[in-house]
Amino acid sequence: MSPQSNPTDEQHPMRLVVLRTGLTPDLLRAWEKRYGVVTPVRSHGGQRMYSDADVERLSLLARAVKGGRAIGQVAKLPLRELQRIVEKDAIALSVIPAPVSTIASESRESIHAAALAAVERFDAAELESTLRGAAMRLGMDEMLDGVIGPLLLTIGSRWHAGLLSPAHEHLATVVVRRTLTWMMENGTPPPMAAPGQPRVGSPAQTRIQPQQQPPAPGQQYPPQGPPPTA
User: Fold this and answer.
1) CATH of the domain spanning 12-94, picked from 1.10.1660.10, 1.10.510.10, 1.10.10.350, 3.40.50.300
2) CA distances to 48, 141, 161, 173, 190 from 186, in Å
């Protein structure tokens, strides 16, 4: 049981905690193991059980991470400080238009469409927000195989067809790498590629110009012309 938990609190199973916080079971277990965010008790059957205080803390941590905080920076914060940070981030985000990641449908297809639309508009902030939102809802395998992989393949195909420029591909690659780093820092490292498998992404990744700098969050990447013909 977490130090802040009251022994008389009602205890909740993991499936209920997942529904209330938006965390995946794998991410919740990783946070417990790596950062000790909460310490659930065990039922007679060995099932993890969480108190009301645990659920409140996990909900705040999920909101803090979704707002851009690294779990390692907020995991040990007192509850009041965590609440203050979440409220501060919510105020800061309230002046920013709602990201496409708040799409009504949470299907892989809708996430893919929202991410691709952000790439086409050179909107790095919207793309990153979409991918982070999807990562919070989906498991690691689903995120890699159902969102990131198909997205990069689609971008590569459109680049070869002349429908997207090298700048589009560069923006997507940078944001995907940044999102994967964020996922690793928050306890969900992606699996290594099997030997002999090609690196995820399109052939255009080898053509990234070294002088191009990744767009900062909130900034749009400057559009460029179509790729040169052979």
Assistant:
1) 1.10.1660.10
2) 21, 15, 36, 20, 11
Write down the CATH superfamily of domain 100-207. Methionine synthase domain (1.10.1240.10)
Residue partners of 211: CB distance under 8 A and separation at least 6: none
40-72 residue pLDDT tens: 999 998 899 999 999 999 999 988 888 778 888
pLDDT digits (tens, 9 = 90+) for 119-147: 988 888 889 888 888 888 776 777 887 88
E strands present in the chain: 12-13, 41-42, 48-50
At 39, the amino acid letter reads T
Closest CA to 189 of 26, 13, 46, 74: 26
Decide if 127 contacts 172 (C-beta within 8 A): yes
Query: 220 forms bridges with which residues in the sheet?
Result: 123
Please say whether the beta carbons of 224 and 167 come within 8 A.
Answer: yes
Q: What is the distance between the alpha carbons of residues 7 and 13, in angstroms, rounded to a whole number?
A: 16
Answer whether 0.70 is exceeded by the pTM. Answer: no
What is the 3-state secondary structure of 87-140? HHHHHHHHCCCCCHHHCCCCCHHHHHHHHHHHHHCCEHHHHHHHHHHHHHHCCH
